[in-house]
Task: inverse folding
């Protein structure tokens, strides 16, 4: 075994001697040429990695738009990308080794990548639109995975095959330039360092500035520069290729090397998937969160390759053994840290993106550095034995392509995301060489793995003081939980951060369903995109004569719906589909009278695509004649630029669109964008008839919809008011996903007063009855509506101005002046009149004089109403 380990080194020295003797460039010594050529190649190697990861970022986003964001679709897309790399690495390995001019080969590969990157500006979206109807609304998981694998594999194949060969040819060029056979780890490290930059620059700079198509064009420009730069370096080293490419004697059996390369690709990407999955539960889970995690992973990988190039450079079994053990130990260290990342993240997130990057580094840097060094060693072994890197890249990519599927469909369901880190670490130990020293190398990680295995699985779900955790469902994409707070209110939480409703918001959820249903004169079929606790869907199913269908992305959320069941669910249960909402709408062939899109958290990665022009257009195709689309927006989670971009996108598809409020809460304000398919005015007579119908009235009266003015009072503005509010600026589109990349400001909006954006909207928009009602109806109701809208706005201003969280008499003293102002403007404004009467009644037990005074003020402010006057007469004889 010792002899076999020393032979490659002596072979390398002999080859380097032949190389140095053979090369003369215009009479200059070979060493001088190698130095100049080698340094010039470094930026090309780095730029190649920059472009490669930039493409992956863009293509991943395009594929998610086409295929959906279910885990099976994501897994298939990742597998397809790595599959193309593997094909390219295997197919191009021989031609690259035999090529007389590797620079020409490399330039051709970069040209193919750049050309196909530009072609995919059009090809990938077209292919995605064609695929959705073929898949159907609810494809079987195996079919979805297969289609998601086939689409990127086939559509991206020219580019990914070319990418699969670039590392091999770059390594050969660098080896020739430096006259050194041991450059594999360094080339891999430099290329991956470029990938770090490509990840960050594409996500933080290029896509926000130029959109997906513009970024692809920029990356194609990088490919062109790489190709031209390589060709400009000269062409006089071709004649030495045969000597430089002589295969070296093997150090280990080929089967064992295949297994190790395959397994390290599988384990490395599996580890990445698990850590990203865990981090989603404690970090902001925006597009920038993922970019930071990926960059940290790649940075460690790059550092490991470069460190090994400078310090290691030997491929003996001893080095392989302790690198495998070190990688296992580093993975387990991250597992030890995982239970505390919630606390770390809470502190670090205050620093914004920098803080999230710091958390990502804490999770990934040690393990990925060890992984980078490990692949550098293995790649050099393949180079020594076979003469090039293609075989190493191909085998490793096959393992990487299988990792997401294995992780999501086996490891997470079997162990959970945290505990699954232990089998990943133990997998590295199983690859240790069969020798006595392996027991020493394996001791520390094996003991740590055992200690972690027997300890209780940590929970990353935050339970409020005095509350309790009632149920948890952990899946490949999300962890859904049901939590009780100290007051007994129950709510649904996704990934430990995003509340999806609860028992305290049932009335609001029902109103979310009823408002768009009442705006349709005779609804029969309704589609709800997004389910949450199911209250909105259940609320819609209470409307007489309406058949309801719901679509929810996460199966784990659907499994927890029984925790929020109520007597109202005794009616026939709505039909629910577990699917991506975008793909469902694109694949569906049914028509609906009303389509309601739930509150999608705008900062959450993937949600921004549900607010694009293209999605709104797809929804419009599913509306029957006279149909209504309602898009709910959480004003307490949005910033002003994102809201305006969404409104511009909405008005492009629904030019007669309007804006409505759900309720008059300043704590959780919600805005509805209502898009009529045919652009007609509201039929006031039909609305009044609906509200008089006993079957309808029994459902909507408890929600505060007694008369038409109760519903019309929530109107904020029509197309002219919306257009003036939105102004000029970018629309949110698939190609320019403004909302997705505005995530940092939308995250900041979570810490702003929740009423900030609501007041900005009400102050900027001036509702016009002419945009809402036809002329005869407008003449009868216009003045009353105008007064009601003024009262509503004064009510909201008063609510926002309340200091702190006053209770009892302090609340009455702080709130009553604003409420009195509201009913002076419109005595019909029940959201102010009702609470004032309630305040007066509550004062009677403790301050009868104050109660009488408040009742007189109420009567003076709204003399047309008799409740206050009757109470004065009955209780005080006045």
Result:
């Amino acid at each position: 075994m010792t002899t076999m380990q020393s032979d490659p080194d002596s072979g390398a020295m002999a080859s380097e001697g032949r190389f140095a003797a053979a090369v003369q460039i215009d009479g200059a010594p070979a060493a001088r040429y190698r130095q100049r050529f080698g340094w010039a190649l470094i930026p090309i190697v780095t730029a190649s990695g920059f472009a490669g990861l930039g493409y992956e970022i863009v293509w991943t986003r395009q594929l998610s738009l086409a295929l959906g964001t279910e885990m099976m679709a994501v897994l298939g897309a990742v597998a397809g990308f790595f599959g193309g790399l593997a094909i390219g690495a295997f197919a191009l390995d021989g031609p690259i080794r035999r090529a007389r001019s590797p620079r020409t080969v490399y330039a051709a590969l970069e040209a193919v990548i750049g050309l196909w990157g530009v072609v995919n500006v059009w090809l990938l979206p077209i292919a995605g639109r064609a695929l959705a109807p073929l898949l159907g609304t609810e494809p079987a998981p195996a079919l979805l995975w297969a289609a998601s694998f086939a689409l990127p594999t086939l559509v991206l194949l020219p580019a990914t095959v070319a990418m699969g060969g670039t590392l091999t040819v770059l390594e050969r060029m660098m080896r020739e330039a430096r006259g050194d056979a041991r450059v594999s780890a360094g080339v891999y490290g430099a290329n991956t360092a470029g990938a770090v930059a490509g990840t960050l620059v594409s996500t933080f700079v290029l896509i926000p500035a130029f959109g997906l198509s513009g970024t692809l064009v920029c990356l194609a420009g990088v490919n062109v520069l790489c190709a031209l730069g390589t060709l400009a370096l000269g062409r006089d080293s071709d004649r030495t290729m045969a000597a430089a490419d002589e295969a070296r004697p093997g150090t280990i059996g080929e089967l064992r090397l295949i297994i190790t390369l395959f397994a390290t690709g599988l384990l490395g990407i599996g580890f990445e998937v698990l850590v990203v999955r865990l981090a989603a539960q404690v970090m902001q889970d925006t597009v920038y969160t993922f970019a930071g995690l990926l960059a940290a992973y790649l940075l460690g990988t790059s550092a490991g390759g470069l460190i090994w190039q400078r310090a290691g450079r030997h491929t003996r079994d001893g080095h392989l053994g302790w690198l495998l053990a070190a990688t296992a130990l580093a993975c387990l260290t991250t597992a030890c840290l995982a239970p505390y990342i919630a606390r770390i993240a809470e502190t670090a997130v205050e620093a914004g993106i920098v803080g999230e990057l710091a958390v990502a580094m804490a999770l990934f840097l040690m393990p990925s550095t060890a992984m980078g060094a490990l692949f550098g060693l293995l790649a050099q072994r393949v180079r020594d034995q076979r003469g090039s890197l293609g075989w190493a890249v191909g085998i490793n990519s096959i393992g990487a392509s299988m990792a997401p599927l294995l992780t999501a469909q086996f490891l997470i369901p079997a162990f959970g995301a945290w505990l699954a880190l232990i089998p990943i670490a133990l997998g590295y130990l199983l690859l240790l060489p069969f020798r006595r020293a392996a027991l020493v190398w394996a001791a520390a990680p094996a003991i740590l793995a055992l200690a972690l295995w027997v300890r209780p699985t940590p929970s990353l779900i935050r339970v409020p003081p005095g509350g309790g955790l009632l149920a948890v469902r952990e899946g490949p994409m999300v962890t859904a939980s049901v939590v009780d707070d100290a007051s007994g209110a129950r709510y649904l939480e996704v990934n430990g951060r995003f509340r999806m409703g609860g028992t305290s918001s049932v009335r609001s959820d029902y109103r979310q369903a009823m408002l768009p249903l009442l705006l349709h004169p005779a609804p029969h079929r309704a589609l709800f995109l997004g389910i949450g606790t199911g209250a909105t869907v259940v609320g819609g199913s209470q409307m007489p004569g309406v058949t309801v269908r719901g679509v929810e992305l996460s199966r784990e959320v659907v499994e927890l719906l029984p925790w929020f069941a109520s007597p109202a669910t005794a009616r026939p249960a709505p039909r629910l589909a577990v699917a991506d909402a975008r793909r469902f709408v694109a694949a569906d062939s049914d028509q609906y009278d009303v389509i309601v899109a739930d509150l999608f958290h705008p900062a959450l990665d993937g949600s921004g695509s549900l607010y694009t022009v293209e999605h709104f257009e797809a929804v419009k195709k599913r509306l029957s004649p006279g149909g209504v689309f309602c898009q709910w927006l959480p004003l307490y989670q949005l910033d002003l630029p994102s809201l305006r971009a969404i409104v511009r996108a909405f008005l492009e598809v629904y030019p007669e669109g309007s804006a409505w409020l759900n309720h008059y809460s300043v704590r959780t304000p919600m805005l509805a964008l209502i898009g009529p398919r045919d652009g007609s005015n509201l039929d006031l007579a039909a609305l009044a008839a609906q509200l008089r119908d006993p079957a309808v009235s029994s459902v909507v009266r408890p929600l505060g919809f007694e008369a038409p003015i109760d519903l019309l009072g929530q109107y904020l503005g029509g197309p002219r008011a919306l257009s003036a509010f939105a102004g000029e600026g970018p629309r949110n589109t698939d190609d320019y996903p403004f909302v997705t990349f505005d995530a940092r400001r939308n995250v900041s909006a979570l810490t702003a007063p929740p009423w900030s954006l609501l007041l900005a909207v009400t102050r900027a928009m001036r509702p016009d009855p002419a945009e809402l009602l036809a002329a005869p109806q407008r003449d009868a109701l216009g003045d009353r509506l105008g007064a009601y809208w003024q009262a509503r706005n004064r009510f909201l201003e008063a609510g926002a101005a309340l200091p702190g969280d006053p209770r009892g008499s302090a609340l009455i003293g702080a709130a009553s002046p604003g409420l009195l102002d509201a009913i002076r403007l419109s005595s019909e404004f029940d959201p102010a009149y009702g609470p004032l009467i309630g305040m007066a009644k509550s004062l009677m037990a403790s301050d009868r004089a104050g109660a009488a005074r408040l009742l007189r003020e109420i009567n003076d402010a709204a003399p047309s109403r008799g409740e206050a006057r009757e109470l004065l007469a009955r209780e005080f004889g006045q």
Observations:
- The CA atoms of residues 42 and 687 lie 71 Å apart.
- Confidence is low (pLDDT under 50) at residues 1-28, 236-251.
- The longest strand covers residues 623-634.
- The chain is about 65% helix and 10% strand.
